[in-house]
Amino acid sequence: MMIIRMILNAHPEKHLEVLQTLLSLMKPVRKEPGCISCCAFYDIDDKNHFTLLQEWETPKDMNNHIQSLQFGVLLGIKTLLSEPPRIRIHTVSKTWGMDAVQALRQQKG
Q: What is the pLDDT of residues 64-77, one digit of tens each?
């Protein structure tokens, strides 16, 4: 699984435009092949600080997305931002669920 984490800091007067752009991209991205999830959040302490989180089944799916029109639109909002977007791409080799949490909590005794 591949994860893209993008941090976007909007100019205060451009908050709504950034939010609308993110909302307009969510449905099309979620329909792309290999998209597991696509979510956008903003910080409750700073509404101009957005995080976009995307999960992709394979590197190929993620690469296709990065080359897509939707990702280009996302990169095109840089004039609405107070600083360049920060992008991190993570490769996940293993994930655990609630069973692992419960097992770890039981070890505590």
A: 999 999 999 999 99
User: How would CATH label the architecture of 2-108?
Assistant: 2-Layer Sandwich (3.30)
CB 52 within 8 Å of CB 23: no
**Do the Cβ atoms of 9 and 19 come closer than 8 Å?**
no
- Domain residue ranges of the chain, discontinuous segments joined by +: 2-108
Distance CA 27, CA 22 (A): 10
Please give the C-alpha separations between residue 19 and each of 57, 66, 76, 103, in angstroms, as whole numbers.
Answer: 26, 20, 14, 39
Q: Would you give the DSSP letter of residue 26?
A: H
Alpha carbons 29 and 31: distance in angstroms, whole number: 5
Residue 91 CB: number of other CB atoms within 10 A?
9
